[in-house]
Records
---
Amino acid sequence: MKSVHNNNIKKWVLSLLIPVTILATDLGFRFEIVKGFELVQLFFYLSSIFFSVFLYCFFLFSLIGTNKAKRTYEILLITIAIFYTIAVIGSYGYYQYSGIMPNFFVFSFMFQEPYNSWVLFKAGLSIVSLLLFVTVFFIFYLALRSITRREKFRFFRWTYLALILCLILLNFFFHNNARFNDQMYVTDTNAVVFINRNVYNLLTGDRLGSAGLQSRNKPKLGIETNTSKPNVLLIIAESLRRKSMGLYGYERDTTPRLDRWFATNTGGNKVLFKNSFSNSSSTLISVPSILSGISPDQPVALTHNSPLFWEYGKAVNLSTFFISSHSFRWNNFEGFFKNAGIDYLWNKETSGNPTFNDIGIDDRKTVKEFKKHVSLLKKNGNSFAGVLHFNTNHFPYFIPKESEFLPVGRDILAPYDNSVRHLDSLVDDVLNFLEKEDLQKDTLVIFTSDHGETIFEHGYIGHVESNHIETVSIPMFFYVPESLRSQTRDQILKINQDRNVENIDIIPTIIDFLGLEGRKDIAPYMAKLEGKSLLTKVPTDRKIFIANNNETSLYRVGLSFIYKDLHYMLRLNKTSPTEELFEYTKDKNETNNLWPNLNETKKKEYRSLLKDCNLCFDLYSTADISL
């Protein structure tokens, strides 16, 4: 009798092992956050615990119901044990690095880019993590096996059906609230809710309320004929941060060719902007922003109704091209660019080349195509306005083996620094080609990046979930050919080299270089641009607005702005929204948050700098903060 009693106690203890582990681990990692939950947040949190318990019971009864079929039982048992092991270790491992639980966009990344997800997973593997994973798996496996192998349940069918009904109803509830409550759930509930949401989105085309890029309304611009205009080449790098470039003072020799190019007198004016910033750390917002000149704080309709770079080129009868290493099927870039006046479009899909890095092709092939096409334009006597779009510096930073100059091992910066050095060689190849073909004397070259990258500086790798300085500080330089130079222009560009400039300054500057600013068909579009032509003096007190949140892209990151030597951030991708302020020119790694020590008057003063930003009102209301 005593033996039976002890066995019952043992089974009860083992039955509670997994749910208790989940709750204890969650509170162990997030107790201070859970303690600060408001009533509504606490309701979602408790609901997630109920879902977690129902899910666990559902799994137990599924195992009990199949324990007579040995093979089915073992497969199901291993699958459930793996699910709980990944949920616990994966979720809280991610939380430890990033400060947030895996949300919709993390799971979306896994769905859209499984290859990159696998690379990232492998990068985080260690002997300790593998031992931990195996240990937890066997504990869960043995516990589940012990309590289900020979167990019977008299009212199994009706209880099972009731559990399924409860899970379906709760899942619908979480599904409809997934957008705003992605940090309120315990780990297994979190995983199920966001996997289900991504599957639903794939099947229905839903974007979690985000419109994504849409097809554009083509602006009506006239075409000047018999004009003599320069070539314009806009080079856009991907995820290239200023911080890792020798050109900007980085201690590693990552840009030797560009260093030499800047030191060589080629007749043109080489302008290196020391304080250049992106308007978003999301490609989905930043690339359209660069090409349209429309800021993410402006209505999204403007992005879809304003001329893009090539349309300004067509307005002065230039031949246009877009040669890119990227896939344009991603987020409907293909549809967005469809009627943008591009004479020659070449990308991953049209090239037929295989994937090399991220979802893009080998940039060496892209440079080869660029040289081939520009040589043809020169042969036919056509001037051009073209974009050359690279991919090298995107995670996981794959480059040709022969281009590695740092050994890849324990040095977490080596893969990225190698990719910067590889890009340096690609850009050098392009610049040498222009010189060899005698095109540099008539070609305006503008180089920039869509955004930067963080490499564990703030417990995160990537760019989308961070607005810290390393993700928004980007390189920008101009090569102004002799034909476009003047003493006044050189002086103004020299002044602006040390001032805060941004990606949305590029389109106004190109309009200025092409002499379009006085045209009546261009003027209405120019009036809506918030950027400044860099051929005019940029104000020293300008605000540079940065966001990943608008109707195009609903990443719940928040917003930030650069003002003089200060960088303000409102972070929404934490359970409780936070505000941070850094003196980024002195605190280059943004480790000293000044915000907690400010009085309320000073805080309101900084928030008031955003009083003219309509998008900001929405984001602040989400954070329950008054502007």
---
Amino acid sequence: MSLSDKTNVTTTERDDRKSIRKQKRAHHRLLRDMNIKCTEQPTQHLMICNGGLVTGIKRETLQCVLDPLISKYTLIMPTSKSYCFVTCSSKEDATCVYNYIHGRIKLPGQNGPLYVCYTETVSIIDYVVPDPAFPSGLTLMENFITEEQEKILLETLNWDKCKNVIDLHTLATVWSQLKYRDVKHFGYEFEYDTNLVNPDKPIEPIPQEYKFLQTLFDKHGHKYAYDQLTINRYLPGQGIPPHIDTHSVFEDTILSLSLGSTWVMNFKKEDKKIDVLLPARSLLIMTGEARYAWTHGICPRYSDVIKTENGPTSQERGIRVSFTFRKVRHGECYCDFKNYCDTAKRETFIDDKTASGLESSYVHKVYEEICNHFSETRHKQWPNVTKFLESLEEGTLLLDVGCGNGKYLRGNQNVYKMGCDHSSGLMGICRKRSFEVLQCNCLYLPYKNDSVDAIISIAVIHHLSTEERRLRAISEIVRVLRPKGRCLIYVWAMEQCRNSQDSLYLKSGKKSKESEKINQSKINHERISECNLTLPIHENRMVFPQSDMLVPWTKRSGEHFLRYYHVFRDGELARLCTKISLASIKEVYYDQGNWCVILEKCTKIIE
């Protein structure tokens, strides 16, 4: 035997050993994944061990290999797997495919040849990934711009010059090279180390050559004056980790325009996963739940699995450029998605035991101390409360829960009025005025079910320090109401600091020039040792830094007190009321720094 013959034998033996190792690994993987056994005896079923969607092989590529060999077969490519199956019409056809492919055929982009095994059965599921509806608030508009407009946008970018700190527009534009992609910012810089934006530090504004996009946004109903633009460039193999754009940094609607290449973006919320194909020139619109509660990201890979009429296949990625437009938020976020909100996560958690102690010290005891001074400041009825009272029929039995000094128990002799309050001092003032009142806790109203025609509760519920206690108080009000009876509830609004001219609380405060300069970082806090709690003090009569606050009260003597308030966000009171099965919401409105709701008791439980 010649030396060359010995070399060829050695190479063949080495290839055979490698082939056997590959097949054994495939045996174990398939048994583990799908409980399918491989066999050494020829069958109609083949497994291509290292040729699947995950390895970047397209369905069309395998079809080009199989079509010249056999006329009839079924190609099954499970998603998220590195292997696939071929079912032939006969064992003879399967043997032909095995002998031709196994260890011999190398596809473009593969490091080595394909390896094949016979299997007893195959997976009967070709396309496993479901095709659910988009998350609420997610919209995709294809061909949002023309190919010519896409070309113009891409030509405005010169990433190589950016790397030399020379920008196409000005040196003020921020460019950075991240681990997964290249990024450019306009308007405001997004700080990736803190996930925040400094709204007081603008950079180069969005270039004029991009302004036509704002016109297109307006045309389709997205009329935000977008002031922040992030341009990302992704090369094949790059991506962006799953994330939710910081709530307190940007307003609700976010628009992302895809250019260059078609890629897949992954959306996830808890156990829900959705893959969204983003074609070139398409506009992705994220608002509501999709913007606030679903993470979105791009897996770093060189190809994506996409769905076609013939089943899933692999599609190689090119260079993708995205233009993401946002509106910078000035202030905190007041969304409905507290579990995902950075504003809500900064707020105080108060358990029931702490709540009772907090309300005793910073609500009940304070009102006993300030009741006379408080009463002197409470004379005039609020117009919309008076309007509600005047709408009541003659002979109505009205209850004022948290009646204070009884200012709403005056007038209209055709309505029988009674009140209750926790403060014995305020009840004493009411009795001197001959009002029908009793002292009680609003969490436990001492009245029978269905016994009162109408109820008002003005500026009371916001003194309860947990959602459970606030819900119980409203439930007690509804319990006491007769069927078809109505109640009116007022609570302080977080938004009153944005509408200071409409807020009695803010207009009554004396703001100095110095106090106007106080920002959130300088707000004082009160340490409540017996409750193991620290709360901010609302001294500047400007923005509320969070929902749970201590609000000062100063008597004429100069003595200071702090009252606890839970300041309600837009929609919070209404959402709370929807949890009460026996009540329906008739009206919600904003009035003089308060969120207000009118409820009607139903004759049967609302399903």
